[in-house]
Amino acid sequence: MLAALENARPLAGGQSLMPMMNLRYATPDHLVDLSRLAELSYIEASSPRICIGAMTRQRDLMADVDLMAACPIIAAALRHVGHIQTRNRGTIGGSLCHLDPAAELPGMMALLDATLTAKGKDGERTMAMADFPLGYMTPNLEPHEFLTAVEFDAPPKNHGWAFDEVAERTGDFAQAGCGVLITFNAEKKIDQAKLVLIGVDEDGPRRLGAVETMLTGKAPGDALFREAGAMAAAEPMAEDALVTQAYRQQIAGVLVRRCLTQAAGRAGGAA
Amino acid sequence: MTGDTRPRTRVSLTVNGRAVEAMVEDRFSLGDFLRRDLALTGTHLGCEHGVCGACTVLVDGEAVRGCLMLAVQADGRHVTTIEGLADADGNLSPLQQAFMDHHGLQCGFCTPGILMTLTAYINESPDADEEALRDALSGNICRCTGYDTIVQAALSVLKPKGGV
User: Fold this and answer.
1) What is the ipTM of this complex?
2) pLDDT higher at A206 or B160
3) For residues A210 and A190, what is the distance between their CA atoms, to the nearest angstrom?
4) B52-108 pLDDT, tens per residue?
5) Which of B67, B121, B138 minimises the CB distance to A22?
6) φ and ψ at A217, to 5 degrees?
């Protein structure tokens, strides 16, 4: 249907596209409602490779016991996604395809190095989350394609995690947000650190590769995490009518330091 | 309705326990449908982009934005609106009564949405504390009360031996 109709859009949970239509930012001629496709709504989080259907509602992601056990950062981030009423309808796939720069779920998928599956008239294809954003709110999807699933490796059992963001009001768009996953080796040095910022880059979530490299192999501590925050704050960031680049850099740097500290405290075998 | 060629689709659903069959305009939100076709004007449409929460109704028992769901998507669902909270004799629900007792409303525009949000939330989380209640209320904007009386009203329903 998506391929056959002119100016058609798939409708997932409708918690982003419907507001855009109500405001006349988006004016599709046809909507193809995916909400009755039960086969796109599932969570398989009991194995090391976690698979989630694109039409899984945010509410269900927050309530899934296996997902909470394997990857608690997702539920922590979801608490910042809109409100109860929008999470009851909003889906993971819809959030990914809408690709708001401040959105939490694209940030989580970037952090977890997720693989996305899209389906279209020519069949299925997969892509890395890193290749999914093409620009401002522009996912790597053809008009006839829609997202069917995401999958990623569960973080190691003893990983530490943290998510935090700064927004004007609860549930508002993040001015900046940060997610951290961290693991330590037997010598209590950082084995692997993954960091992502949201809300700082118009093109989508931004992984902090240089900071991740800098942290690897080091012993955790306040000075190190301050250095990481300073590195993050030195990155160029978006500026808008409410938030200057300098302010965004400052809150991003603070969030990086805080999240690293919190994540290190939660990790098994942490210093 | 002669000359009205706007696309319509047949829907059958229940609204406040009553079976409803209708030919609804495809473009109508659930909120539009409730207000304009069913004359259930207790559901208020405020911002119409999912921020203010005034249009909150229950679909299959879950709080959703009436402005962000199309009426055709409610086909086969059970919808509850503010008109469905009181019983058949007009006795207010405990939460509604608590709002009266605690002065949990002033102008009343946001009240239907807040009552629907809290009705669903308290059903799911009867042990919620004040912080959780305030978080649950974050999707409903009230410009009159400052929320304190709303929270007090909700807390009085949560506590089994509350001060009502």
Assistant:
1) 0.89
2) A206
3) 15
4) 999 999 999 999 999 999 999 999 999 999 999 999 999 999 999 999 999 999 999
5) B67
6) 85, -5
β-pair type (A30-33, A8-11): parallel
Q: Please, what is the average pLDDT of chain A? A: 95
Distance from the B117 Cα atom to the nearest Cα atom in chain A, whole angstroms? 8
How far does CA A156 lie from the centroid of its chain? 19
Closest CA to A51 of A157, A154, A158: A154
Res. B1: pLDDT tops 80: no
pTM comes to 0.93
**How far is Cα A116 from Cα A100, in angstroms, rounded to an integer?**
17
Minimal C-alpha gap between B8 and chain A (Å)? 14
Query: From CA A128, how far away is CA A110, in angstroms rounded?
Result: 9
Indicate if the pLDDT at residue A271 is higher than 70: no
Shortest Cα–Cα distance, B114 to chain A (Å): 11
Distances (CA, A) of A263 to A132, A167, A190: 27, 21, 11
CA distance B105 to B153: 10
Q: Which residues fall within 8 angstroms of residue B71, CB to CB, at 6 or more apart?
A: B11, B24, B25, B28, B29, B30, B32, B33, B37
Residue A18: half-sphere exposure toward Cβ, Cα within 13 Å? 30
- Cα separation values, A114 from A12, A128, B92, B152, Å: 20, 6, 49, 44
Q: Beta-strand (E) ranges in chain B? A: 8-15, 18-25, 56-59, 62-65, 78-80
pLDDT digits (tens, 9 = 90+) for A50-80: 999 999 999 999 999 999 999 999 999 999 9
- Whether the CB-CB separation of B130 and B157 falls below 8 Å is answered with no
Q: Locate the chain A residue with the closest alpha carbon to B54.
A: A85
Contacts with A33 from chain B: Cβ below 8 Å: 70, 72-73
In chain B, which residue's Cα lies nearest the Cα of A18? Answer: B68
